[in-house]
Amino acid sequence: MKGNPKLIETLNSLLADELTAINQYIVHSEMCANWGYNKLHDQFEKRAIGEMKHAEMLIARILFLEGTPIVTKLNPIHIGADIPKQLANDHAAEAEAIAAYNAAIQLAGEVNDFATREILESILKDEDEHIDKIEELQDQVGHMTLPIFLTTQI
User: Fold this and answer.
1) Under CATH, what is the fold of the domain 5-68+81-151?
2) Domain boundaries in the chain?
3) So what's the pLDDT on residue 132?
4) Confidence class of residue 20 from pLDDT cuts 50, 70 and 90?
5) Tens-digit pLDDT profile for residues 84-128
6) Nearest 5°: CA angle at 121, between 116 and 126?
């Protein structure tokens, strides 16, 4: 099925966002593992795997729409030097993703591609869960102070 060129371009932009997030979250995950914060390592790794699934869904949809998935483009990756910076950078990435998915959902509706819109809505739901979890961790750091929070992540 030949898809709308503007929508395919938007899907490729979202794909670049997802591929960037995968890299950022994997680096943060491995940094946490290196520091001995195994619980954070597992959470960041799980989020990276979620983003991989989003990338897979986007690639499949682009191919279905007879587009070419662009997997060589990454956006700037923001690696945090410590846990608060990692969480802040990840929060910013998720906030940008949520805005991008909302815009893409609107575009899919405008071009009457409701199947693509449904896929994007399912990914948006996951992104909402990601930002909620990041905010939960940020709140815990704020309530406990960073040193106490980190002792709970070993």
Assistant:
1) Ferritin (1.20.1260)
2) 5-68+81-151
3) 98
4) very high
5) 999 999 999 999 999 999 999 999 999 999 999 999 999 999 999
6) 130
- 8 Å CB contact between 133 and 43: yes
Sequence-distant (≥ 6) Cβ neighbours of residue 22 within 8 angstroms: 48, 51, 52, 55
Instruction: Tell me how far apart the alpha carbons of residues 16 and 26 are, in angstroms, rounded to a whole number.
Output: 16
Average pLDDT of the segment spanning 60-71: 98
Nearest CA-CA partner of 76 in 10, 15, 16? 16
* DSSP 8-state class, residue 152: T
Neighbours of 147 (CB within 10 A): 8
93 token code pair: 């990435």
Q: Are 83 and 146 in contact (CB under 8 A)?
A: yes
Q: How far is CA 151 from the centre of its chain?
A: 27
What sections of the chain are H helices per DSSP?
5-35, 38-64, 83-110, 114-144, 146-151
Look-up: residue for tokens 């992104």?
Answer: 127
